[in-house]
Amino acid sequence: MRRKPVPPAPDRLDRLWEAHRAVPLIPGSEDDCCGRLATRLDVTPDEGRDWLVFCQSLGLARETSRGFERIRDEQTVDDLREAFVAHVFGAEEVLDALDEGPQSVDVVFDAFEPTVPNWERHRDPNGWETRWRGRVSDLLDWAVLFGLAGREEDGYVAVDD
C-alpha cells in the first residue's frame, strides 16, 4: 500500500528519528499517537498524523489491533530509501520525472499531475493544484534527504546508484 501523507522534509534525518522515538512502544490509539507526535515535534495534531502515517510508510511504525506502535528494528538509510519509493504515494513518479536532467518543482509537478487522484481534484477544485504542488516539493526534498536526488542550481536531479 502506498500512503499519501508526507510531512515537510527537515534539514536533517534527525527529525525523522525524533518522530520515530515519539511513536509509543506500547500501542496507543491514533489520537494518542498523533497527540504525542505533535507535542514532541511541536507541530499541530494534523501534522502529527502526517508524521505517524509517514513513519508507517517507512516501516518505522505499525498499526496493530490495539493501536499504533513503534517498530524497534534498526532501519538503515537504505531501508528508508526503499520504503520511501515503495510505500509513499508519488515518490516513484517524482523520481522518474528527474530522468531528463535538472528539473524545477513546476516541471516535476507537470509530469506528476496525471497521477493526482480525480477525487482529490473534485473535493477541492480551486486548491488541489497548490496542495499537490507542495506535496511534490516535499517529496523532492525527502528524496534529497534520502540521497535519491540532488539539488542543483537548475533544479533537482536524479542521483546515480
From TrEMBL:
Which InterPro entries does the entry link to? Double_WHD-containing_halo
A single Pfam family it belongs to is WHD_halo_double
- Tree of life domain: Archaea
The name this protein carries in UniProt is Uncharacterized protein
